[in-house]
Amino acid sequence: MKPITLLLPEQKTVSIDELTQLLSDAGRATRPRPFAPELVKLAGAFSEKLLGDQAARDYPELQVLGYWLRPAALLEMQKELTGKPGLMTVPQGLVFHIPPGNVDTLFAYSLVMSLLCGNANIVRMPSETGKAAALLLNILKELIATASDGIKNQQLIISYDHDADITEAISQHVNLRVIWGGDTTVNAIRQIPLSPLASELVFPDRFSWSAIHTGSYAALKEDGRQKLAEQYFNDLFWFDQAGCASPRVIVWCGQSDAPLTEDFYTRVTKVAETKKWKLDLGGNAAKQTRNYAAMADQPITHKRDFGSALTVFSFKNMGGLKALRANPCFGGTLFEIIVAQLPDIAPAVERRDQTLTCFGFEPTEVEQLALQLNGCGFDRIVPIGQALAFDTIWDGHNLLQSFTRLVKIQR
Amino acid sequence: MILEHLFSESQYARPEAEKEKVLLPELIALTKHHLKNCPAYERIVRLTAPDFENAKSLDALPYIPTGLFKTHKLQSVPDKDIRLTLTSSGTTGQGVSQIVVDDITAKYQAHALSAVMREAFGTKRLPMLIIDSEETLRNRDQLNARAAGVLGMMVYGQNPVFALDAQMRLNETAVGDFLEKHGHQPFLIFGFTYMVWRNLYQPLQKKRWDLSQAILIHSGGWKKLENEAVDNAQFRRSLQERCGLTRIYNFYGMAEQLGTAFLEGEEGNLYPPAFGDVIIRDPETWQALPPGKEGIIQVLSLVPHSYPGHSILTEDLGVITAIDKGSRKGKAIKVLGRIPKAELRGCSDVYAAGIL
C-alpha cells in the first residue's frame, strides 16, 4: 500500500492501521454542537489571520476566503441553520472531504463549513496544489494547534497517491463523503463503497454561462462599463477560466450590435492587460489546441481575437453548445450567441449548467427563465462579478444542512 | 512536378527568400486541397486564415496544432485510399496521434527521407546496424512512430541487422559479427537518440568496439536523457572517445510530418529540407518571431497529402539560429525542448516515440 502523509494535526507518515486508529478515535470522540462558541471563535480567528497575514495578502483568493468567514458572515450562517421548534440540528459525524486540484482554496471552504457544523473531518489534499494551498495549510495548522484537544484531534488532513484501498479504508469510517469533482473523480470514487450508514455529496464537472442585456449595456456610461468589465474579468480569468462557475458562454439579449459587444470585450481585455493576467507557456499552447478543436467541431461563424487574452467565437445556432460541454475551452475563450430575450436560451440549457451570471435584466425576466427551466439547469443565477463567490448554497445543495442532520423531538 | 524536383536537387542550396518563393504557391495549393477534402480543416481555415490564397509570406498561411491529431482523425482522402495509420504511442489518459497515410503520401515520405539522407551519406546503400529490436516492427497496419522511423530508415541499409534482442538488450554476438564483416568500410547506424545512448553507448563500456567507419543517424530528442544530463555536445564527444565515432547526424522530425527531417549541420544546427520550412511563433501573440527569439516551432512541408499536416504548430520550443549563413542556405534552428506543462505534461513516452 502506498504511504500516507499526515499533514494535520502534525506532519508525519502513517500506516493505514495508524490512520484507521486515528479515524476511529475521531469518530468516537464527543463532538461540539454546531456553531459552538469555540468553533465560531476558531473560524473568526482563521478569517482574521487570512486578512491580516502578510503572505496571505498576496493571494486574492485567500482574502476572499477570509472575508467569507468574517464574524458577520458567520452569524448569518448560524441563523441559516437554526431549526424549527422540535427539530434539533446535530453534526453528521465524521466527514471525508476530497477537494479538487484546480481550486486551491476549496478544501478550506469545505473543511471550515463542516467544522462549524461540529463535525470531525478528514481531508484528502490533491496531489498537486499551488502556493495558496500550501500557505492555507500552514495557517490552518497553526490555528488548529490552539484549539481544545477534542477539536484538534478530530481534524485530519492527509495526502496519498491514488489508492482505492486507502480511500476505501477511510470511507468505511465516515458518515459523509464529499467529492468535489470533476466527473472522473466522482465516477472513480463512487465505485468505492461507503459504510451503509454514510451518505455522499458530489460535485461533478459543471458548465457556466453569462448574459448581458444589450440595451442595458448600451445605456451604461463610461464608469459603469468599466466596472462591469472589471467584474467580468474576475469571473472569467480568476481560475484561468477553468472553474466550474467560470463563464464559457456569453449571451447578448436584444438587437445584434457588434460595435457594442466589441466595446465590452475590448474593455475586459484591457483589464486583463492592466492586471497582467497571463497563461504560462504550456497553458497558452493548450488553450490554442483547445480552440482549434472547437473550430474543427463547432458551427462557429466568426472568430475575434482581443489581444492575447481573449478569443470570442460566435455561434448562430445553439446546438453547438452540446459538444462544448464535453471539451470546454479555457484560458480566455468565450462562445457568443445573440438572442432576443433571455428565456430564449432555455432549450439549450442542460442539467450540467451551473451558473448564469447576468447584467441588466428585469428580475421578472430572470425568474421567467428559472421557472421555465424548473431545475433542468442553472443552480445559480447571480450578477456578473459573483460567478466565483462561494456560498453555502452550492450546486443546488444547502451545504450547512448537508453537513448536519436533524433530530425530531416530539412532546 | 515541383515536389519531385525539390526531392532530387541539393537540399540546402537555395537562399531563404528564393526558397519561400518556391514553397509559397505550392503550400497555398496544398492548403486548398486539404480545405476541399477535409471539412474540419476547412472550418478552421475559414476562421483563422480566410484570405490564405493571397498570402504574401509563409507565416500568413494557416496552421493547426499537432495536438489536434490526438483528438481528431483529420483526413483529406477517401477511406479506401488509406494505406496505413501512423500513431504516436501515448500513455494512459493521453490521446494518441493518428496520421492517415495514402499511397501518394507514403511515396512522398520515402522520397523526402531519401532526399535528406542523401545529404548525410550519399546514395550508395551501406551495411546498416539498427539500434532497436525487430519486435518493434510487429503490426504493420497500425505503426507507431518509432517503428515507422525504423522501417523508413531500413531501406537505406544493405541487409540491416538489429542490434537489440526482444528484451532491448544489446545483442553482442550480432553486433560483433556485423563489425567483423562490415566494420572496416563505411557503414550506417540508425537509432533513437536515447536508445543509442542507453542501449549502445552505455553497454559499450565493457566492449571497445571500433565504430570509426560508422555514420550515425539518430533522432528523438534529449528529453528522455534529461536525468543523465546528456546534450548534443556530450553525446558526440562521448561516442567519439569511446568508439571513434565522428560522423554523427541528429535529425528533428515528427510523426505528423514523417520524412520531412531537419538534418544536423554545422554547430548542431538543424536545417529544414528544400521541400519544407520552419517558423518560430510567439506563444502569446502567435506572430512569427525573428532569428534569435525563442518560441514555438511551426513546421511546413509539401509532403502530407492525405491529411492536413503540411503546416503544423509543434509542441516544441526552438529558435532560428541563422538564415543563409555557413555552408547550408535557408533557415537553421535549434530545438530547445518540449513546451513545459502542456496538455501532455509528464508524458515522456509520447515524446520519445512521437518524434520522428
In words, what does this structure look like?
- The complex is a heterodimer of chains A (411) and B (356).
- Chain A is an alpha/beta fold.
- The termini of chain A are far apart.
- In chain A, helix 14 (321-326) links the parallel strand 12 (310-315) and strand 13 (333-339).
- Chain A is 42% helix and 22% strand.
- In chain A, helix 2 packs across helix 6 and helix 11 packs across helix 12.
- The radius of gyration of chain A is 23 Å and the shape is globular.
- Chain A folds into 2 domains: 4-203, Aldehyde Dehydrogenase, Chain A, domain 1 (3-Layer(aba) Sandwich); 207-383, Aldehyde Dehydrogenase, Chain A, domain 2, CATH 3.40.309.10.
- Chain B is α/β, with parallel strands linked by helices and 356 residues long.
- Chain B has 10 helices and 15 strands.
- In chain B, strand 7, helix 8 (193-201) and strand 8 form a beta-alpha-beta unit.
- The longest helix of chain B is centred in the N-terminal third of the chain and has 22 residues, at 16-37.
- Classes of the chains: A alpha/beta (411), B alpha/beta (356).
